[in-house]
Amino acid sequence: MLRRFLFLFLIISCFLLAACRPISLSLDEESSSIVVDSDTSTLIIQTLIENEREWKTETLYAEFEVLNEELAHQLETSTLYYNTNQRGIPEQFSIDPEYGRLLHEQFDYMGTISEEELQNNIQVNVYDENHNPLQTLSMKDVNISYR
Q1: Which superkingdom (predicted)?
Q2: C-alpha to C-alpha distance for 52 and 48, rounded to whole angstroms
């Protein structure tokens, strides 16, 4: 009887552990950039998030968080969601094993934006479908350009 219980406990534990696999994402800084288009007053953020695990991620969504107060004021928000629909709900996605997902979004801004306001002041927050934070990726050393 005890053997059956231990065997059943072992099987259940294996299933639970398999379902609780940790997420491991990285930001590819070489493929990431921030572009300020002064002609259209548009800030364009492009970043590649890579899944470093051997299994597909769960359902995710992402936001760009603005850490600089002045920049947040110019964008009129400190949270910029990736690919929202008309109701403001961000797109959900998953990333295949050892692949990446390109997040590309543009936002209107007011005034002028300096490189100092952008450098190290935008991060990517990744959440699961239940709005639990999974990982924060800093856009530290990305290319910033003006056109």
Answers
A1: Bacteria
A2: 12
